[in-house]
Every structure is written in C-alpha cells, then in structure tokens.
Amino acid sequence: MSTAVNQPVGHWCWPELVTTDLDSAKRFYGALLGWQAFDVPTAMGTYVTFSLAGGHCGAAYRMAPEQ
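User: That's the sequence. What structure does it adopt?
Assistant: Structure tokens below.
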C-alpha cells in the first residue's frame, strides 16, 4: 500500500467500518492490506483501530443489534 503525500491543508480521511462480524473484518483487512488491528474497549463495546507502518489508518466497530 502506498503512502499519500502532499495532502491539502485540512484534508481528512478516516475510513470507519460498521459491521455485524468484527472478527472477520479484522482478519480480512489484515490479510488484504496488512493492517494491524488494536481493540479499544469502550462503554459501547469494542472499537478497533487499524494501523499500518506505525500510522493510524482507520477503524471499525460492531453494529448494534437494533441496527
């Protein structure tokens, strides 16, 4: 995966996945893109941040049953 450079000031990109199968999503993006998954416990459940080469690159969390 390449690294973006020369982004305009104020540019923001944070992909965030909402899924019913968080464990599969962690395995899928790890295998596909080489992302490392880190679980962050919250009051609402587990929030997963993804990192690549020491930089944060996205996140995921489990969809609530009512969704």
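Residues 51 and 57 are 5 Å apart (CA to CA).
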